[in-house]
């Protein structure tokens, strides 16, 4: 899989799969949200975003949803009028956009500016920043789960069957197939786009319900690899310059 950048992590971020919420202190040194060449309407929106007090959320992963699908982003700062995020690839087209937090809250927004792998958005209505920050802090370890659907081949020592992944996270996935697997059974899951250059993922069955199975990966995805997987499956052009 093509890498969007050799180091996809935003500045000040540790190379870790965990997310840590900030303390909600207003960030008076937040970077400028404007971009060169923006139109009058975009400039006004950017000015309004800059005018509102900002609160830093450090390394907080969220889900960016648009017409192209569901993508991983990292929140950089947020105010009641807008938010800036860092992506692991270019911003997908196809607004309007929604920001989905791990706890389940969703915020409608429109894009204002884009600069390489960073983007700024304006909320369609003012948000309760304290609620957003507290929601982030209540679930510091809850991972992002994406509704990505793609075919796989599931193998064991004694059988092989075709299946379809229905959603996936950094730690595991849910898939459907006709095979019969036991709880805690080890599986090898293969898919052309599942891991890019690595074609096989090893996992263990954690639950089953009729033809559906939930598995945990032996080796979890880094946040960057997970984000690039989502882009590869939904809009591969985002990974190319």
* Portion in helices: 10-25%
Unreliable stretches covering 5 or more consecutive residues:
1-38
What is the rounded distance between the termini? 14 Å
- C-alpha Rg (nearest Å): 19 Å
* Spatial ordering of strands, largest sheet: 1-2-3-6-5-4
Kindly state the number of beta strands: 12
Helix/strand-derived class? mainly beta
Broad shape: elongated
Please summarize the sheet with the most strands.
6 strands, antiparallel, barrel
User: Mean pLDDT across all residues, rounded?
Assistant: 79
SSE string, helices as H and strands as E:
HEEEEEEHEEEEEEH
Number of continuous helical runs: 3
Topology:
Blueprint: H1 40-51, E1 55-66, E2 69-78, E3 82-86, E4 97-100, E5 106-115, E6 118-123, H2 129-138, E7 150-155, E8 160-168, E9 172-177, E10 186-190, E11 200-209, E12 212-217, H3 223-234
Antiparallel strand pairs: 1-2, 1-4, 2-3, 3-6, 4-5, 5-6, 7-8, 7-10, 8-9, 9-12, 10-11, 11-12
Please characterize this protein's 3D structure.
A six-stranded antiparallel beta barrel has the order 1-2-3-6-5-4. 14% of the residues lie in helices and 37% in strands. The protein has helices spanning 40-51, 129-138, 223-234, and strands spanning 55-66, 69-78, 82-86, 97-100, 106-115, 118-123, 150-155, 160-168, 172-177, 186-190, 200-209, 212-217. Strand 8 (160-168) and strand 9 form a beta hairpin. It has 241 residues and is mainly β. Residues 1-38 have low confidence and may be disordered. It has three helices and twelve strands, in the order αββββββαββββββα.
